[in-house]
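Data card: per-record layout.
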Amino acid sequence: MENKILVETSARHIHLTDEAVEVLFGAGHILTKKKDLSQPGQYACEEKVEVVGPKSSLKMSVLGPTRPESQVELSFTDARTIGVSAPVRESGDVAGTPGITLRGPAGEVTLENGVIIAKRHIHITPEDAESLGVADKEIVKVKITSDGRSTIYDDVVIRVKSTFATAMHIDTDECNAAGAFGVVYGEIVK
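The structure for this 190-residue chain is written out next.
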């Protein structure tokens, strides 16, 4: 494999439990797939949720399928906008994170925790990881070359799994900082 990895921007979104879906959208509600995402089995939903912070709120897209824990993924700009001090964490690592109120058409859910800024990461297949000489949970640097905003991102975590499609995920703040618009590739720098 060539040392080029597709870089995708992961905009603010929310993952919900089955229970949260029912409270927010009504008993028996099932998420409606809008479009598939690049990671196999993941999809954007038609449903949106209002995420209510101390200062303001944001409408956010719901991603499916449902998960064991609800999780709100923001950029630092989003977090400041709604008045939440969210830590940088890997997806699923929500212990000790701030809570938030979610508002849907049928009701509200108050999360005790679950608000994070997603840590930059690379989803990668075992075959691609071997080819690139990286391992699960390894921290790497990735260079993104763009017109006038080339950037090297440090603290990028490798996440190896056979069900992944190889791609790096950054948030909208990181995308804007690097001018990473359109189809962009990054290069692991060792």
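Known properties of this structure: Residues 11-118 form one domain. The chain has a mean pLDDT of 97.

See the next section for split statistics.
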